[in-house]
Design goal:
- The protein is an alpha/beta fold.
- Among the domains are: 97-255, no CATH class; 272-347.
- The protein has 15 helices and 37 strands.
- Helix 11 (308-335) crosses helix 12 (337-343).
- The chain is elongated, with a radius of gyration of 30 Å.
- The relative contact order is 0.07.
- Residues 74-94 have a biased composition (Basic and acidic residues).
- Residues 462-586 form the Right handed beta helix domain.
- InterPro entries: Beta_helix, PbH1, Pectin_lyas_fold, Pectin_lyase_fold/virulence, SHCBP-like_N, SHCBP1-like.
- This is SHC SH2 domain-binding protein 1-like isoform X1.
């Protein structure tokens, strides 16, 4: 084994610690081998940080078992021969007093540690209906069956208990209180008698995920602590109560666990905009409430009654199911990184809502000069070229600032900001709620505004008429685009945009005129154009992005298609397409994902028109016709419902909302009606072609 570890170590030395969160499963093996080798030779187990020790504790003896037995089945590689714990003690906040013992620190596992535990040991290739059985099997092999201490933790109390037995099938533990009573309470007082009554009401059984294993230095309960943590995390962040209703026609880990796990860590590591996170959580809550209503209605329906009340209930159930499928489709868009990038979202608004200041009460116009210092020649040139023409009237005042952000924050309607040459660093987003002009006094490479701290955006504009010119914007550690035009109009000329995530975003009903600019480096699209927007791109260079221009053509009945002018642009060296159009798979599905059109998800060309919404129905095939019913034809829906049987089930066909999306190159996109004018453009060395269409 030592030789294998050395070999693996030499083969994997090029992998740095900064890449650990993106490492693939095949690379995880090498990481474990490296740690084992280091420990066996030098006793050094702390690599990067203490979390790596968690990985060792979970997978320490895997290779020995493979060598000794040649068996690759499940988690029976664990053994109890340990010199001490490799997990850390959970630290309490400074100054906090507690009446209960410390527990293992298991809540800070890395992405790949959870990924590997769920994929290789807990879930494997199980189907949705097999999740509980696979989980029970995993726990039975890893968790100590009895005689260990734990904290029974709820929102109200933490109380010390002893585990007497574990019911793996029901994922519960049989416990008894440790006397004298040791507990921490939050907002209530608990006595020993009250706790005994509470335990007796539940048959002395509590859910395993509510237990936190008490810290023991010997290492005897490391695996138990980790297994309970994986169980708790799974049911708190991965499992959805409607998952087991799905048909067993897909790999649950691939379809659900991996994307949800990635989304959790993307949110944790600030790689998802705050508005998108809030919208996702709201959708998740709405979907949970809808499913509960659906379940209650379904369980209350009589299986052998033809009463009018039951018929009406069935129609209500179909409507609830229709709503549930829409919400689930939206959730899938959020959980899929590709769809999240391509389709985006409509509900995100800036977390710091900046109101328009309007004109000054005095009617005076302001000119704001931004410079840390300047030479006499620069000042003389500024006076003659810009200040004197702008200040020819008496109702103008001049203010001086050291950075662009402070100047913009005091601007009123109609003000002008002149930025002298220099490199200016800002730590917050720049919001432009008023019609102002920001111009660099020099070439773009001489006037640089750089954003370094994390945030949802760099520049956000909601002003009616905003102008930007002769400035270079450099984006670092961003989550959203370098410029987002949410409302109003932005005129941009002779600017350089060095992007980090997406580039310029033109939201619904916003307008952008972008002339003679250079945009590059976007990990998304250089320019994202939403339905209902108006975008004019003339004489720009858009290059070295994931896609050059991404057009979202899925307008609903409240939107119109975007209007785009593209003339004399050079779009080159992009990873994907020069111009890509996003649209629903069928011609009749043109709605925004947030709307009802999501009920008609993507699927194969020969799939049934309502196949994505598995019908809340009886065994009768006539039920599928009921899903097309509308309130104005409720009587016909009721007839259709009553003609079918009464035994409902939440069946689910292979959902087209989770079919793989696809893109393909097209030749006739230039003829699309979204283009007001498209001429003189040059497309060079784009990885997937000049024009393409993404179907979802």
């Amino acid at each position: 084994m030592e030789q294998e570890a050395l070999a693996t170590h030499s083969a994997g030395t090029s992998n740095t610690g900064s890449d650990m969160t993106d490492i693939m499963v095949v690379d995880l093996e090498s990481f474990v081998h490296v740690e084992l080798d280091m420990e066996n030779n030098n006793g050094i187990s702390e690599v990067g940080n203490n979390l790596s020790g968690l990985n060792e504790a979970l997978f320490l003896n895997e290779e020995e078992d493979e060598d000794e037995s040649g068996d690759d089945s499940g988690t029976d590689h664990f053994n109890s021969e340990k010199s001490g714990t490799r997990l850390q003690r959970s630290e309490r906040p400074a100054g906090e007093n507690s009446n209960v013992p410390d527990t293992f620190q298991t809540s800070h596992l890395l992405f790949y540690e959870r990924f590997r535990a769920y994929q290789d040991y807990m879930l494997g290739d199980c189907k949705p209906s097999e999740v509980k059985a696979f989980t029970a099997d995993y726990l039975e092999k890893v968790v100590e069956p009895c005689d260990w201490l734990a904290l029974w933790s709820t929102d109200v109390f933490d109380v010390l208990v002893e585990v007497c037995d574990v019911d793996f099938k029901d994922l519960k533990a049989c416990v008894r209180l440790v006397l004298p009573l040791q507990c921490d309470t939050r907002g209530c007082d608990l006595t020993e008698e009250a706790m005994k009554v509470l335990l007796g009401a539940s048959g002395d059984k509590v859910p395993l995920q509510q237990l936190q294993v008490v810290y023991v230095l010997s290492g005897d309960f490391d695996q138990t602590a980790l297994a309970v943590e994986h169980l708790r995390f799974f049911y708190d962040h991965i499992w959805r109560q409607w998952d087991e209703e799905d048909e067993d026609d897909f790999d649950y880990f691939v379809r659900c666990v991996e994307p949800r796990l990635r989304l959790y860590y993307d949110i944790l590591e600030d790689r998802v905009p705050a508005g998108l996170v809030a919208e996702y959580q709201s959708l998740l809550q709405s979907c949970s409430q809808c499913f509960q209503q659906f379940t209650v209605l379904r369980s209350g329906l009589s299986t052998d009654s033809d009463s009018e009340l039951d018929n009406v209930s069935m129609v209500e159930g179909l409507q609830l199911y229709d709503q549930l499928e829409t919400l689930r489709r939206k959730l899938h868009i959020f959980e899929n990184p590709l769809l999240r990038y391509v389709l985006g979202y409509k509900g995100n608004v800036p977390q710091q809502c900046v109101q328009s200041r309007g004109p000054r009460a005095s009617g005076v116009k302001g000119v704001h000069v931004v410079t840390a210092s300047c030479s006499s020649m620069q000042l003389q040139s500024l006076l003659s070229d810009r200040l004197l023409p702008l200040c020819c009237s008496e109702d103008t005042e001049i203010q001086f600032h050291r950075d662009p952000l402070s100047a913009v924050e005091v601007c009123h309607e109609g003000d002008v900001v002149i930025v002298l040459p220099g490199v200016y660093t800002v730590s917050r987003s720049i919001f432009l709620p008023d019609s102002i002009t920001i111009e660099g006094f020099g070439l773009p490479d001489e006037v640089v505004i750089e954003k370094k701290n994390k945030g949802d955006s760099f520049v956000e504009s909601t002003g009616a008429n905003v102008s930007l010119s002769n400035i270079k914007f450099i984006q670092h550690d961003a989550i959203e685009g370098i410029l987002c035009v949410r409302q109003g109009t932005v005129h941009m000329e002779n600017c350089v945009l060095q992007c980090e995530t997406t580039g310029v975003i033109v939201r619904n009903s916003a307008r952008l005129t972008m002339n003679m600019c250079d945009l590059y480096g976007s990990k998304g699209a250089g320019v994202e154009i939403y339905p209902g927007s108006v975008c004019s791109l003339v004489g720009n260079g858009i290059h070295h992005c994931k896609d050059g221009i991404l057009i979202k053509d899925f307008a609903d009945e409240l939107d119109v298609m975007p209007s785009i002018t593209m003339e004399n642009n050079v779009i080159h060296n992009n990873e994907g397409y020069g111009v890509i159009l996003v649209k629903a798979n069928s011609g009749e599905q043109q709605g925004v994902p947030a709307d009802r059109s999501e009920e008609e998800p993507t699927g194969p060309a020969d799939s049934q028109p309502g196949g994505s919404a598995a019908l809340l129905s009886s065994s009768s095939s006539a039920q599928s016709e009921s899903t097309e019913a509308r309130p104005d034809s409720e009587s016909s829906s009721t007839d259709a419902a009553s003609s079918s049987g009464r035994k409902w089930h939440f069946s689910r066909q292979l959902s087209r909302s989770k079919e793989p999306s696809c893109s393909r190159a097209v030749q006739d996109l230039m003829q699309h009606q979204i283009f007001v004018s498209i001429q003189g453009n040059q497309f060079r060395r784009n990885g997937m072609g000049d024009f393409g269409t993404f179907f979802y």
